[in-house]
Each structure stands twice: as structure tokens, then as C-alpha cells.
Specification:
Elements (H helix, E strand, L loop, with lengths): L9 H10 L4 H8 L6 H10 L4 E4 L7 H6 L4 E4 L3 H13 L13 E4 L12 E6 L10 H14 E12 L3 H4 L7 E7 L5 E11 L4 E10 L16 E8 L3 H10 L2 E7 L13 E8 L1
Parallel strand pairs: 1-2, 1-4, 2-3, 4-5
Antiparallel strand pairs: 5-11, 6-7, 7-8, 8-9, 10-11
């Protein structure tokens, strides 16, 4: 899938960005093994003197370790398939009872965090795994940052990670498929996963077409895009550059305590994959 000469509207991109989260097994197949960020958020939440709010909780990859660490946690997830899987996971591990979405320690909220409202209830608000990169409009991000200040208790913290812009990736050929990995679906169908990258420089938006091509056998080197079970999913992310995101935060009244190039808290550098930020409302 590639763009025509006519650029898609921001509204169209925002609509496409939701499709990546419409199937829980695809989401978990791609991301459930990711664990590099878990100790960072768990340690931060354990140090917080009060409840935590997680934006974009997904299927509970970070939520479950937080709850196991004794953190009182509210979780926002707008995708119904992911939210249903999240609730199943929490029920399985006894943090919720069947049919419930809230307990003394855990609360699952089914709404868009751009529309969420709260008083100063939380000692810590986190937005893990690049979820803020799905806020494609700078005005929306500014509005969200200002509202998060209202959700945090005095001396509370706001922590998140977003992609570190990959300039080499932005220059990749938008007509070429780049192989990424192989994995199996819930019915043991084997997929060859590859991506096509389209970067819109003015909008600072990366549109990734993810090709899930069925493999006839384990020796298949590229999969069959015409197979009836093959499919394509878009991933749409806004890329915020380091000075840009820092300026936005400071303009919204935050003091940045940490702006690192990874979860090991080392300084930003050219080969960083993520920007990891901890800040506090002034």
C-alpha cells in the first residue's frame, strides 16, 4: 500500500491509525514479548506516593506488572478488542472479577484519553510504548498535556516514551517492502511480516503499511500476499523531535527531569530508539 500523489488528510490518517489496534491477537503477536520498558515504569510507579493512571493500556503488557507490584492503577484503552483482552487478563490474574471493570486496585476505562477528564487523583500518569505518537495534531497534544496537569496531584509526575526520529528510515523507498520478522497466528497460520514506509515531512507523520503474508511453509522466504488469509494493517505515527517535544512540555508548564535516549536513562544520541521523558508540573 503506497500513497498516491494526493496526500491523505489528517482526519483520514487519524482514522487509519485506529486499525492497527482492531485485533488483539495481532497486537499481542507483535508486541507482547517487548519488556525493555517494564522495569522503568514499574520502578517509577512503586516510588509514586499514590495511584497511577496509564494511557493506552493495550492488552496489559505493562498494566499487569504494575498491578503485581502493588500499584493502584487506572487504565485507559479506547480499542474495544484490546480492552476486552485486557479485562480477560486482569480477571485471569484475580485483579478483576468476571463482568466487572473496576476493583479496589484496578480500574479499566473505555474511552479516548484525548477526551478523558479527571481531578487531581494521580501521583503518576504514564503513557508507555509510543502511545502519544498517535496524537497526530500538535494542538491536540498541547491540549492533552495541559489537561494531564489537572489529573496529577501536587508533586506528581508525568512519564512517557515516544520514538526518536529515524532520519534514515524517513528516506526509505516507499515502493519497497522491508522484511521484519515471522510469527504464527492463533490458528497456527505462519506469517511473513514486512513493512513499507511513507514519511510525510511537513506533517512529520510516518505511515507504515504492515504486510502480513501467509507462508506456505517454514522455508517460504516472503509469504504470499494474495493468500486469502494475508492482510495489510496501517501504523500511523507522528514523530516529535527532541527540542520540539521539550519546548511543547515547557510551554505547557512542565519541568523536564529526564529526557533520555532509552530506558537505561542514558543521554540522547544518534542511535537512540526512543525518547524517555519524566516531567513534573511547575
Amino acid at each position: 500500500m503506497t500513497f498516491s500523489k494526493k496526500k491523505p488528510t489528517l482526519q483520514a490518517l487519524e482514522s487509519l491509525s485506529c486499525a492497527h489496534y482492531d485485533d488483539a491477537w495481532v497486537y499481542e503477536s507483535r508486541y507482547q514479548s517487548r519488556d525493555v520498558d517494564i522495569p522503568f515504569y514499574v520502578d517509577l510507579a512503586k516510588q509514586a506516593k499514590g495511584p497511577c493512571l496509564e494511557l493506552g493500556a493495550g492488552t496489559g503488557r505493562i498494566s499487569l506488572p504494575l498491578l503485581r507490584a502493588g500499584v493502584s492503577l487506572a487504565m485507559i484503552e479506547r480499542s474495544m478488542p484490546l480492552r476486552e483482552k485486557l479485562c480477560q487478563t486482569l480477571i485471569q490474574h484475580d485483579f478483576l472479577k468476571p463482568g466487572q471493570t473496576a476493583s479496589q486496585q484496578a480500574r479499566v476505562l473505555g474511552q479516548d484519553f484525548l477526551e478523558f477528564n479527571s481531578g487531581p487523583e494521580y501521583a503518576l500518569v504514564i503513557a508507555p510504548f509510543h502511545c502519544l505518537s498517535h496524537v497526530l495534531n500538535t494542538r491536540d497534544l498541547v491540549s492533552l498535556f495541559k489537561r494531564i496537569r489537572q489529573w496529577i496531584k501536587p508533586q506528581g509526575l508525568f512519564a512517557f516514551d515516544i520514538p526518536y526520529p529515524d532520519l534514515e528510515q524517513f528516506l526509505l523507498n516507499p515502493k519497497e517492502k522491508y522484511p521484519i520478522e515471522q510469527f504464527s497466528g492463533p490458528d497456527d497460520t505462519h506469517y511473513f511480516y514486512s513493512e513499507v514506509f511513507n514519511y510525510l515531512p511537513f506533517e512529520q507523520i510516518q505511515y507504515v503499511s504492515g504486510y502480513y503474508d501467509v507462508m506456505d511453509n517454514e522455508h517460504d522466504k516472503q509469504g504470499d500476499p494474495l493468500h486469502e488469509k494475508s492482510f495489510v494493517l496501517p501504523l500511523v505515527q507522528r514523530h516529535y523531535f527532541p527540542q520540539e517535544i521539550r519546548f511543547i512540555l515547557e510551554s505547557c508548564g512542565y519541568h523536564v527531569h529526564l529526557h533520555a535516549g532509552g530506558f537505561d536513562k542514558k543521554p540522547l544520541c544518534a542511535d537512540a530508539r526512543s525518547q524517555v521523558i519524566i516531567c513534573q508540573a511547575q
